[in-house]
């Protein structure tokens, strides 16, 4: 079986407001989170349609913060991604069980590179498709099609875990089974593990 994981809020917990609150407490919380990490410019950075420098200039214009402050926010952001330990353990259990593991994530290039450097477990996956590589974002069909084609996977032998229902619906439209991760918590990870176990009872490992 091919098990495909999203990264943000599935394998790595991402809390923009918590990051700003703990590392930049003097900044206006909601304005900064919305103006940077929930902005259309951030999504364009995710998709590889803007470089980090181009995005930073737009964040300066959008928020009124200094270039130096925007750079500090961007530089620190990858280190704010912390493992959901129960999901890391689940991935390892699946890997030892003979299943192929893949990553499918909307993520900027510099964030992906830093995450791989900081979190060794991400390097043990069998493959990955990142949004910045193909200039698309989930839930675009091209994200799922690229994964299936690049690694010659059969959709009927593939399961996708994501925190966003719209991304799961798009995967299901490609014939991929789905499991929802409603929150980056231990309880949600247990629910994901139970759902995967039920699916694996009816589908053989690779």
Structure commentary:
By secondary structure, the chain is of the alpha/beta class. Helices cover about 50% and strands about 15% of the residues. The strands form 2 sheets. A 5-stranded parallel sheet has the order 5-4-1-6-7, sandwiched between helices. The chain has a two-stranded antiparallel sheet with strand order 2-3. Strand 6 (about 160), helix 10 and strand 7 form a beta-alpha-beta unit. Helix 3 packs antiparallel against helix 4, helix 4 packs across helix 5 (about 65-75) and helix 6 (about 85-95) packs parallel to helix 11.
What key phrases describe this protein's structure?
single chain, 206 residues, alpha/beta, 5-stranded parallel sheet
Write the layout of secondary structure elements.
Blueprint: E1 2-5, E2 12-13, H1 16-23, H2 29-37, H3 40-46, H4 52-63, H5 67-76, E3 82-83, H6 85-96, E4 100-105, H7 109-118, E5 127-130, H8 131-134, H9 141-150, E6 158-162, H10 165-173, E7 177-180, H11 186-202
Parallel strand pairs: 1-4, 1-6, 4-5, 6-7
Antiparallel strand pairs: 2-3
Number of strand segments: 7
Taking the sheet with the most strands, its summary is: 5 strands, parallel
- Percentage of residues in DSSP E strands: 5-15%
Radius of gyration: 17 Å
Oligomeric status:
single chain
Instruction: Pick out the low-confidence regions.
Output: none
As a percent range, the share of helical residues equals: 40-55%
Number of helices: 11
Tell me the strand order in the biggest sheet.
5-4-1-6-7
Structural class: alpha/beta
Tell me the series of helices and strands, N- to C-terminal. EEHHHHHEHEHEHHEHEH
Question: Gap between N and C termini, in Å?
Answer: 5 Å
Shape: globular
